[in-house]
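Action item from last meeting closed. Structure (185 res):
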């Protein structure tokens, strides 16, 4: 596996959550060397929110089109130093917590963990009440107890940092970037 972080890339998973979707795309657009893994549900969200091709030119885009999620093999080749999952739907959180890897998003999370790739995870359902942007405006959302419990369970996963806000997501990415700079010096 590659150990030179300068050669490795960021991996970013988009799922079917619209919560802070635009803001996540904005952060992603500022990362150099970032590849995107798009679940089938994220494809729908991209269309609903009117995004045609929001990714930087050097971005490789992997879509959920194979039963075995073939693109996850990149993790075994040492292509990625960090996985960012943001925003993450309650469905994907539940599957990740249960160890289910039956689509591109959940399979990427599982394989990144097996390859000891650090993960920054922004789950959407992090508070009992929140406002979220929907395609036609803001809506009130009341996550279920199970959704909140699953986010808590994620915090116990190896090499997984769970953040609960966009500011925390940006801070975690900046801290990871600094860590990578120091380790390649």
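Sequence:
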């Amino acid at each position: 596996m590659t150990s030179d972080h300068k050669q490795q890339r960021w991996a970013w998973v988009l799922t079917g959550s619209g919560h802070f979707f635009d803001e996540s795309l904005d952060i992603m657009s500022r990362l150099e060397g970032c590849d995107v893994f798009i679940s089938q549900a994220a494809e729908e969200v991209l269309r609903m929110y009117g995004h045609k091709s929001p990714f930087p030119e050097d971005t490789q885009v992997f879509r959920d089109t194979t039963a075995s999620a073939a693109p996850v093999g990149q993790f075994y080749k040492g292509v990625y130093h960090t996985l960012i999952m943001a925003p993450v739907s309650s469905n994907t959180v539940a599957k990740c917590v249960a160890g289910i890897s039956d689509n591109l998003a959940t399979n990427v999370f599982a394989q990144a963990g097996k390859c000891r790739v650090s993960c920054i995870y922004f789950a959407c359902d992090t508070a009992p009440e929140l406002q979220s942007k929907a395609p036609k405006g803001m809506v009130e959302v009341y996550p279920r107890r199970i959704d909140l419990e699953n986010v808590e369970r994620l915090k116990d996963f190896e090499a997984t940092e769970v953040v609960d806000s966009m500011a925390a997501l940006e801070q975690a990415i900046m801290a990871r970037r600094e860590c990578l700079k120091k380790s390649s010096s």
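Note appended to the action item: The longest helix spans residues 166-183.
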